[in-house]
Amino acid sequence: MFVSKSMTRKLITTTPETDVLTVGKMMKENQIRHIPVVDEGDILLGMVTDRDVRSAMSSVAHEDFDSKDERKKLSALTVKEIMTRDLVTVSPLHTLQDVLLLFQKHHYGALPVVDDKGVIKGIISIRDLVRAFINVMGIGEPGALLGIVAEDKLGQMKNIVDIITEENISMGSILVARHWEEGKRAVFPYLMTLNKARIKKKLEEAGYELLDPLEWHLDQLPRK
Amino acid sequence: MKRTGFLYDERYLYHDTGSYHPETSERLPAIYKGIEEGGLLEKVVLLKAKRADLKWIETVHSTDYIRRFEEVCLCGNTCLDSTDNQMCTETFDIAFLAVGGILDAARRVMEGELDNVFCAVRPPGHHAEHSQAMGFCYFNNVAICAKYLQIEFGVERVGIIDFDVHHGNATQNTFEHDPTVFYYSIHEHPSFAFPGTGREFEKGVGKGTGFTLNSPVLPGQGDQEYKKLIKKDFIPAFEKFKPQMILVSAGFDGHEDDDMSGIRLTTQWYTWMMEIIMNMAEKFCKGRLISILEGGYCIERLPELARNHIKVLLEEK
Ligand SMILES: [Zn+2]
After folding, report:
1. Same domain, A77 and A161
2. Domain that residue A162 falls in
3. Which of B21, B136, B192 has its CB closest to that of A213?
4. Angle at CA B209, nearest 5°, toward B202 and B66?
5. For A126-157, what is each residue's pLDDT tens digit?
6. Whole-model pTM?
7. Inter-chain contact B83–A193, Cβ cutoff 8 Å?
């Protein structure tokens, strides 16, 4: 799960000398909110966001209400004056897990991906992560989720997977909630089958407790 | 009393899904028995299967898929695309007979020979995608029927209601761009049930936006919630759309005794639902309606469910 596999490679970049109006137009036309700023060698110098552009525009507008003058000022204003230079970047060999934790820590919407020479390689956004995790969870393909309570001891997962495998059912994913009740885990296999009844019976016969779907409080797991 | 057709053919039993499969051939005799025991066989027109013309199946499925299905089947393979879809060497032919029987029924309704028909066919259809078998389904019977009505009889607005407990992913996909076919489905919530589609925000695409409507229902719910959503979603949508013909994807697997879902509908709910649909057909479609069997796996309950279904179609109280 490397960043290089999930990032957006088709990049729209700009230079430090570009004026703010042009950058604002680029964002609008391409429906993007982050544009990396690079030099002639594609070395990343900074990042300009739609918020930077908006606040630049409004500060000019406040100073002077004459729109002709306003435009003049804005076209004189260049990217290097409004871009963020102090950037958090990730490398193509960072993992999606790294990025997930970074997003949580810094409240970013997107991070530039640069190689060890500082050359921009792509950009990774929350959108890219969402796509990757839908893929990992398998929920883009038809299937059904099952909820199983298992004791927190060795070999439980193997048993569950064995039972599913014996039934010849493929799995889209298997999620584990490690903190459930005292000494218990909840296991959520995503099964690529319509025929859930039989596997449920098998699991019950093997002594597993099936979760009532309405007890699936994944969102009530411990918060930090 | 209505002139009601009942499509039933013993050849539909030859689609063999092996042992331990819920979509077993026992389902159809259970349906037949229920109708017979209700003394309704004399009141319906019994229709037999016909082989569908390939061109109609090609309105929904790719030629490559149809060919692949035939090859896999004739080679003696026992499943197609997923182990869910168990089959035998006859399955390909029987899938043609299911479609053909339905199209013949549709023709009779359009030509005024019958008011409505219940098509007790196997294999079911609403999960079968353009190029993929899925969820016990090979050809999308209801979608092909809608295409046939459009092309052969120029029906301008077809309304499909799917009350099988699973979302009819393939029917939705077939018509999501098409504003002339309205697809409404009520089913168990996709985060808990197969196939994982049919969320509230799936409302059609492009020109078809607003002509797909889904009512997902959380597990554990039953008649009350279903009735509430039918009144809130289905009725206003169809009253606005004014279909000229109604097709029903009739699946009985949301019944409380059916172990395919966590939805707990009673036998009475199905009667209530069909009465609503009949009223709708009366109001907009000159009473024309075709009901096509999808799921429903509780052999003990199928007789009464089928009997009540036919009673409503006959308007026999
Ligand atoms: Zn179903």
Report:
1. no
2. 140-220
3. B192
4. 70
5. 889 988 888 888 888 889 889 999 998 888 98
6. 0.85
7. yes
